[in-house]
Write a structure and sequence with these properties.
363 residues; alpha/beta; DNA Primase, Chain A; DNA primase DNAg catalytic core, N-terminal domain; 3 domains; 4-stranded antiparallel sheet; 4-stranded parallel sheet; globular; zinc ion binding; DNA primase/helicase Gp4 N-terminal Bacteriophage T7-like domain-containing protein; TOPRIM_dom; TOPRIM_DnaG/twinkle
Length: 363
Amino acid sequence: MRSIESAMVRQAAQGAGWLAVLDELAGSVLESALQRPGRHGPCPVHGAGQGDGFRLFPDVDRSGGGICATCGAYPDGFALLRWLFGWSFPETLNRVAGVLGLSDRPSPRVRPLLVTRSGMPAQACTPYPDQARARLRRVWNESLPPGHPGAGVLRRYLVQRGLSGVDFDSRVMRFHPALPYWGVAETGHPVSLGRFPAMLALVSATDGSAMTLHRTYLQPNGAGKAPVPAPKKLMASGQNRSLVGSAVRLCPVPLGKNPVLGLTEGIETALAVRAMTGMPVWAALSATLLERFAPPPGLCRLVVWADKDRSGVGEQAARALHRRLGPSVEVRIRVPLMPIPPQARGVDWADVWQHAPESRLAA
């Protein structure tokens, strides 16, 4: 590509959002990091055995960058993808352009098969858009509603989290009895860690259309999350549009006078707030997506139930959202008063609910 086209691709990636680009090109490799921008986790190159030495920048949707404690910083999405897969800059540029629907030629191009750093085709990890959409449909069609006799593991999990009686839209959250879990070995090869029951949640775009699925892998007895490196994952969407503004719409927002909506990062946090307040609550899934949340038309008041992190990321995202929405929507921010335990990175409203399950809060 010529230099002017390079600038065009860079501008288009920033406009569409690097989260969507990285999800499409490196979704399985970066899944846990994409859910927690700004927070440390296992390095996608060195493997889970190397602790938590990697993180995406908090502004990853704009910059596309991240940092590895061993290898250094990668300031933008192009540098990050080159590090992950060993691509040249022209190859990286072409792949990003393909995701964004740009091309050197007027005729459509077929996106080349993605190759991992080890040289192994990664089609199983990062599918083509049609394959990704087909996989989403298949997983959703294989799932069961929460009240189904075969969804007992999900109900037991919600019971032990103190969330068994919480009302939510059963069309949004379902249960999969045996969902494959794929990780990345230290060699860079995809590796199956088995099948686990999973809680599925539908992620909707700003217009209400389906974007992708969020998975929470569970222990077979429902006693907690599965013993895997990243029990909470987003599936590749197969869509060339940004995740910005998307959310898990756990409850419909009642139409009428002065509608109010609660917003959290996590799904279980949203259910806990629902239990404590009775208000409809949506989950943005990460601090980055919470900061860029797009409220539904006609919303009068948004209550942000922020995470309380040692890093301050959760509260910073809530304040940034408040500033961005300005006078268009009344925004209130609630932060847990409980202290952060010594070994914890933070607390959220699900922790508050666990410690005081009879709590009733006003928005």
